[in-house]
Amino acid sequence: MQIHDVIGIGFGPSNIALAITLEEKKQDGCNVDAFFIEKQPGFAWHANMLLDNAHMQISFLKDLATMRNPSSHFTFINYLHQKQRLQDFINLKTFFPSRHEFNDYLAWAASHFDHRCAYGEEVLEVLPEKRNDEVTLLRVRSRDCNGIIHERFTRNLVVSTGGAPSIPECFQPLNDDFRIFHSNSYLREIARHEHAKKIAVVGAGQSAAEVFMDLNNRPGAPHVDLIMRARAIKPSDDSPFVNEIFNADVTDFVSAAPIRIAPHSSTSSGTPIMRRPISF
């Protein structure tokens, strides 16, 4: 029975970065046996939102490795070099690659670990393996596209399954209406509506704005209404102060701050609100 040191559920950017880190730790003698299970049949990163002219909103330097190890093989810069695209990218004079190119970078990085990832398997359950009433291992059960059940054992589990669309309760009765769909399936679903004359986009976030622009730029564009709660679309705040909240030292500071119960503050259910004091 093979026992892995780590099994990761999901193989998106987060667990790819983990796989890279563990791989590079081997150079320091830290040999961790890691394996990953991904539900999708192959690597894909927001595949249905890879729109033309859509770009990243963060610097390419915040890739899978640069902030931790600038000399890593897995940096975006090295990816460009390997693809003979480095000079062309430099000439663009931008910190923000297209979403298509960054998706290709992520796929390139993921391909280094094809032998350590089972694609097309959905994890069904995680069961404790006990010895003398102590959980010593975890049994991870998954099912592949042929319906075959696989069981693997691990000492540690990392869950990185990504997000899922949140459908408001008022829209639940419309789940089976093919005319209504979430942006996470946009490109796949909009192909079924190429002759639509009127389309409404609900929302005012980045995805809604990108879908709105994509629809209006299509040949024979339909009439598109953008429906939102706010009075106008506002640009995201990307000032240095806002971005500092994602810095590793600030994250550690907030995580280590004592939790205090704010007086006279509670949710609608009466539960006290827990707050961490933050000062910069």
Give a description of the structure.
A six-stranded mixed beta sheet has the order 3-2-1-6-5-4, covered by helices on one side. It has eight helices and ten strands. It is an alpha/beta fold and 280 residues long. It folds into three domains: 3-159, FAD/NAD(P)-binding domain (3-Layer(bba) Sandwich), CATH 3.50.50; 169-227, no CATH class; 247-275, no CATH class.
How do you describe this structure in short?
It contains eight helices and ten strands.
Strand content: 15-25%
Distance between the termini: 51 Å
Would you identify the CATH architecture of the largest domain? 3-Layer(bba) Sandwich
| Whole-number tally of structural domains | 3
Please report the number of helical segments: 8
Low-confidence stretches: 273-280
Shape: globular
Secondary-structure class: alpha/beta
Mean pLDDT: 90
Q: Which labels suit this protein?
A:
about 280 residues; alpha/beta; FAD/NAD(P)-binding domain; 3 domains; 6-stranded mixed β-sheet; two-stranded parallel ribbon; 8 helices; 10 strands
Topology:
Layout: E1 3-9, H1 13-25, E2 34-38, H2 76-82, H3 86-92, H4 99-111, E3 117-119, E4 121-131, E5 134-144, E6 149-159, H5 186-190, E7 198-202, H6 206-216, E8 223-227, H7 240-243, H8 248-256, E9 260-266, E10 272-275
Parallel strand pairs: 1-2, 1-6, 2-3, 7-8
Antiparallel strand pairs: 4-5, 5-6, 9-10
